[in-house]
Design goal:
Helices cover 40% and strands 9% of the residues. The chain contains 3 helices and 2 strands; from the N terminus they run ααββα.
């Protein structure tokens, strides 16, 4: 259990499922199971993994920090969920 009282530690305690999904992505990238892509909006190479659904931890969208932040602040309809078609 985390003993620190930082904003990040508090988020991890409050969101264990999301935190586990983040860790799963980190492990998969490190193991070569998934590969980072460029930002799906602007093509920048430095990206964050965004989960549309945390119950599918390795199903992520790659977004640069700018677009990832905008997505969280302005809503999911800003960059629609990819269709599988």
């Amino acid at each position: 259990m985390l003993k620190t009282d930082t904003r990040q530690a508090n988020w991890r305690r409050a969101n264990p499922g999301k935190y586990e999904a983040h860790l799963a992505v980190q492990r998969a990238v490190k193991a070569g199971e998934i590969e980072k892509a460029t930002c799906e909006v602007c093509g920048v190479e430095t990206v964050d993994a965004h989960h549309d659904q945390y119950d599918e931890p390795l199903n992520v969208r790659w977004l640069c920090r700018r677009h990832h932040t905008r997505l969280h602040h302005y809503g999911e309809d800003m960059f629609p969920i990819r269709s599988s078609i």
